[in-house]
Design brief:
mainly alpha; single chain
Length: about 180
């Protein structure tokens, strides 16, 4: 798990990631500069080390749910679990680092759009859901936004619950 170690160690930098030279990032992680960039496309990607895992978890909430389990409870549970992970003790410094960095905020937004696209594709591909492409894209985007809103809320769990009540109502309104 060299990749995870790199991501964890870079968080120890007390400068903005965007201003930290690649050599400083590598030195902090105790690896060669080439090793850092063999595992991460950019310094910003170091902060979001679980990016691919989050995307897979979101799509698996759709694709791996039991055949007769409704979509919304499965997706709600997964978003709630991801929010718990990101708001767990120790997550505040990372959130502050992201909020304080235009490059990290931009990277996070592009990552969120990619996650929404992957989730929308999983929704559209499920033959049991029978929703339009628009309904799938909007639902995916709302689920990603629920995550983002909750991570910045005073009560993240309640925020996810509230937003998912709205998402569920919208999803049901699109039923054929």
């Amino acid at each position: 798990m060299r990749r995870r170690r790199l991501g964890q160690r870079v968080r120890l930098l007390d400068r903005d990631v965007e201003r930290a030279p690649g050599g400083d990032v590598a030195a902090e992680a105790d690896v060669a500069v080439t090793t850092v960039f063999a595992h991460f496309a950019s310094k910003e990607a170091l902060v979001f080390e679980r990016d691919q895992d989050f995307e897979q978890r979101l799509t698996r909430a759709v694709t791996d749910r039991p055949p007769h389990e409704p979509l919304m409870p499965a997706l709600h549970r997964e978003v709630q679990a991801l929010v718990r992970h990101c708001t767990a003790e120790g997550g505040a410094p990372v959130r502050r680092m992201i909020e304080g960095s235009p490059a990290l905020r931009e990277y996070e937004e592009s990552m969120s759009l990619r996650h929404a696209q992957a989730l929308a594709a999983a929704l559209a591909a499920d033959p049991h859901l029978s929703r339009s492409a628009t309904a799938c894209r909007a639902t995916a985007r709302f689920a990603i936004d629920a995550f983002a809103l909750a991570c910045q809320a005073d009560d993240p769990g309640a925020t996810v619950d509230e937003v998912f009540r709205m998402i569920t109502a919208a999803w049901e309104a699109t039923a054929p």
